[in-house]
Design a protein that fits this description.
Largest sheet: none
CATH architecture of one domain: Orthogonal Bundle
Helix content: over 70%
Strand content: under 5%
Number of strands: 0
Order of helices and strands: HHHHHHHHH
Number of helices: 9
Radius of gyration: 18 Å
CATH topology of one domain: Tetracycline Repressor, domain 2
Length: 195
């Protein structure tokens, strides 16, 4: 018998998948319940609304990704190799999306930024906080060669470039766009090219 936390996690996982692939507006609560294998009453036991589910899914996605970015930033390699590793990680996500669903649909945080944040301050605030965590996680990549404040700006710039590469991959439905732009990224930050 499934425990309540398992039910909540299934709802979040189903919502995250649906919101990523289809967008927030296109997904209804019944679709989330069907994908999670729960009744609406169970969903409403944990979440008062679709927006509350989206905020919880965003938070889960964003906070769980911090470890991935921090692992790259604190791991072995030159700054250029670490920048490239971040793009390679996103490339791998896009490859899996296309293999499973036939298309690249991008990053939930970036998608929510454009679809939901302009309409809702709670989403805007959530996304802003999560991007801040991501920026701090990768700031060490730039800390050795930049001042502390400049390193944070460089981290922000890296995510702006990465989001652009993901958008290019979505439009072309081609994960290789992330890899191609990623190979150029180290040079944007004054790092030697990776062999």
């Amino acid at each position: 018998m499934a425990t309540q936390p398992d039910t909540r996690e299934r709802i979040l996982a189903a919502a995250l998948d649906l919101f990523c692939r289809l967008g927030y507006t296109a997904v209804g609560t019944q679709e989330i319940c069907d994908a999670a294998g729960v009744l609406k009453g169970s969903m409403y036991h944990f979440f008062r609304s679709k927006l509350e589910i989206a905020l919880a899914a965003l938070t889960h996605f964003g906070e769980s990704s911090v470890e991935d970015f921090a692992g790259i930033a604190s791991g072995p390699g030159t700054p250029a190799e670490k920048v490239l590793a971040i793009f390679e990680m996103e490339y791998g996500v896009a490859v899996r999306q296309k293999a499973k669903h036939g298309r690249v649909y991008g990053c939930f945080l970036a998608n929510a930024s454009s679809e939901m944040a302009p309409k809702d301050d709670s989403v805007r605030s959530c996304v802003h906080r999560l991007y801040g965590l991501w920026h701090e996680a990768i700031r060490p990549i730039f800390a050795e060669s930049q001042k502390k404040s400049t390193a944070l700006d460089q981290a922000r710039m890296l995510f702006a470039v990465m989001n652009g590469s993901i958008l290019a991959a979505i439009v072309a439905n081609d994960p290789e766009q992330i890899r191609k732009l990623g190979r150029q990224a180290p040079k944007l930050f004054g790092f030697a090219a990776v062999a």
